[in-house]
Structure formats: C-alpha cells, structure tokens
Design goal:
Shape: globular
Order of helices and strands: EHHEHHEHHEHHEEHHHEEEEHEHEEEH
Radius of gyration: 21 Å
Bound molecules: 6-O-phosphono-beta-D-glucopyranose
Strand content: 5-15%
Structural class: alpha/beta
Helix content: 25-40%
Mean pLDDT: 97
Number of helices: 14
Strand order of the largest sheet: 1-2-3-4-5-7-11-12
Amino acid sequence: MANFKEGFLWGGAIAANQCEGGYKEGGKGLSVSDMVKGGTHSEPRIFTPTIDEAQYYPSHEAVDFYHRFKEDIALFGEMGFKVFRMSIAWSRIFPNGDDEQPNEEGLQYYDQVFDELRKYGIEPLVTLSHYEIPYNLVTKYNGFASRKTIDFFVRYAETVMTRYQNKVKYWLTFNEINIGVLNAGGLLSMGILHEGTREMFNPIDDPQIRFQGLHNQFVASAKAVIAGHKINPEFKIGCMIAHMTMYPHTCNPSDVLLCQHRDQIMNSFCGDVQVRGTYPGFIQRHFRENGISIAFGDDDEAILKAGVVDYYTFSYYMTSCVSHESGKEFTAGNLMNGIKNPYLQASDWGWQIDPVGLRYTLNQLHDRYGIPLMVVENGLGADDTIDQSGNIHDDYRIDYLRRHVQEMDEAIADGVNLIGYTMWGCIDLVSAQTGEMKKRYGFIYVDKDNAGEGTLERKRKDSFYWYKKLIASNGDEL
Ligand code: BG6
C-alpha cells in the first residue's frame, strides 16, 4: 500500500506563456515572454525589444490552449486529475500592467477555464506570475526595479482573487521566485532590462538592482498573501521555489561548506523570507561581502512578517554537485549548470536524473519549514517519436516519473507532509529555456515542431494511461 493520503492532489502543470498562444487576442497586451524568439538545443533564446514579424516567437501561438482548453481539460479529466496548475497571463487582465481597470474579456476567459475544470472536479492551482510580466512595465518602470510595480502586481492579484474567490482556492504568487538570485531571473522573472541585453537567460546584469527587485517581489508577494486572506480566509497561498538540490562533490570540508553556502543562497534564502517572514543571517553576510544593500520601505519588515505563505511548493528536475576546486566537468541543468555527479545518468538535455534526491529534498524542506509541501513541477523533457501505428511509447518518461513517485511515497513514510504533485508540462508545451517543442514533457502529445509547424492535434502517449491508473489507485499502481 502506498502512503499517499486520501485526497492527495495528483495533477499536472503548465504556464500561460508556454501554452496559451492567442498573444494578441481578447485584449491581451504583450508580456516579457512574447518578446523572446525561439532558440534551439544549443542556441540561446534571444530577446528582442520590438517584435520582428519575420521571426518565430514560440509564445505567440504556443500550443493554442487559449482556443483548445476545453479539449485539453477533457483529457486531464480523463486521466482523473485532482488538480491543475496553470498561470494567469497578467497581461490578459491588465494589458499594460498599469491600467486602472482590468480587461473584462481576459477575466471572462479564465472564468470559462475554471468552470471547465470544475466540470471534471479538478481543483485549479493558480500561479499569479509565471515569467509573464506585462512588457509595458518593463519599458516604462524597469519592472520590479521600481516599487511602483509592487502596487501594479497587488492590484492585479486583488482583482483576480476577488473575481475568482469562489472558483479558485490554491494560489501561488511568483513562479520560481529564487531565479532572481541568478542573473537569469533579472528580465524573465522581474522585468528588469539593461540596455544591450540579447540573451533572455543571460541578460546584462547589475546584482544591486536585481536583489532590490527581488526584495520588491517579496513585498509584492507578501501583500498579495495578506490581501488574499482578507478576500477569502479559505485561500491557501503558497510560494514557489526552483529547488536546485546540490551535493558536495567530495567529503572534503571545503566542498561541504561551499555547497552549504550555495544551497543557502540558491535554495533557502527566498523560502526563508516567504515562509518565516525575515531575511536570514547568511544573506546579510552575502550582501555585505558583495556590496549589495537593500532599501526597505518603512512597513516592509511588518509586511513580510504578516504575509507569510500557507504552504511551500517547488520545482524539482535534477541535482548537481559543488566543488571548491576548478577544472571539474560540468553538466547542464534547470536554469543553472552544475558539476557532474558520477553516480547519475542525465536526460538528453543533460539534466541529471535523481529520484532519491527528491526524497532527500522533501525531508530537508519538511524539517526546515514544517508546513505542507507540494511538488508543482517535475518531469522529463524528451524527444518523443510516433510509431507507424500512431502510438507514442514513452517508457523512459514513465520510468522517470515512477521513480520520483516512489521516492515521494518514501518521504511521506519518513513523516513529510506532502499534499500534492503536479507533473510539469502535462501536455507538450514550449520549453522555457530553449523555446523548442521537441523537448516534450507531456502525457499528451501536440503535433507541432521546433519551427512552429504542425496541426496542433493532440494524442495520448503511453504515459497518459500509466498516470491515469496511478491516480485511480492513489499511487498504488506504479
Ligand atoms: C521551470 C519553469 O524552471 O522549468 C518552467 O518554471 C519550465 O516554466 C521548466 O518550462 C522546464 O524547463 P524547460 O527549459 O525544459 O522548459
């Protein structure tokens, strides 16, 4: 018997900019992700300050969830999803970000999506901002570098939380807020743009401005939590961290200490602020030693304390190692590289697969925070092929997922309070880092290629049937 409690939230996850398309429809404004051209496995994604109509921008059509959500939700219903993690495109609701009034057509769109989910008994889990800051806030205010953006975000959060107060219970404020610790988060997550930036995931960077932007995001998140709890005290509002689990490369104390330091900055800093409501001591030292100073508004300390989250969610794909010595072999990973671990195999995109690391991570997080946990992203990006009979035998994906589910089961037996699991990219979608379609995660195949060609037809993969059984048996039938 598996250890998943009755009511465990099994489901899948997507983000608006990687799925919806319809980028100019229904009164939607441009978002930062609409300004990024498609990349490839090896070429970076390029940000363009204006849209060049001759180029291919994957988010503009994505997989057309905007028009096909009914068909897609029916498939999620068929698999028996209990929960569906999605994001609202901020620029569908406030096309310019700083508008006084929301766009009614955008609000109506999500009314329909939530109603459709309810039809199948699927609980929506909504990320307010998943790499989708309205582009006008970038050009006019430099995104979260300005405190004005805090107010725009809170207005947006209050608007959607009020509108959907009877349709949505689970909310997340910012997707992978800790990407702001890396330069990769400057433009993508915070909308901070320095002149000369070309590569979306490697923009021109100023850590002082970036960490101030991250502080402003913390305040925005806390204010949204406070407002949300007033709108509906039943709301569960969480944080979302990209968990980059890391191990010391050797038992040399210098490796262990450096690993602990990196782990604190990358993984614990943001969670500590959002769960505990204060800046931890280690980050104060890091700021002192790196010449960073954060300007706090008069009420910020109190706001951070009052706006702590109800539950902690995270993405988990891979792990890597840390060494104090140079010259070690590196491997690719989610948002950052790391040193290769000789005990792990990697995906075709070089991400090291580590199911046991998920159990380790869940235990660590449980011990640190003691609040409910949810894995809201986990999955395998792979290049699926359709055989002659039109089937997609993705046994490698089933294997990846099965092994991760087994370790979640173990973690629950260890005493971890894990309440849900949403597999990333439950339907094939545009890869965030590469812009490819070929890097597929889904239980559902979408006929579209890297150049944007295809019928958009949906097909069930073998993993679709596997997940359906897993959910029906609440984790018993692995
Ligand atoms: C996470 C993001 O970092 O990783 C998702 O929240 C993203 O938006 C996912 O899609 C997988 O990364 P990629 O680059 O394979 O799409």
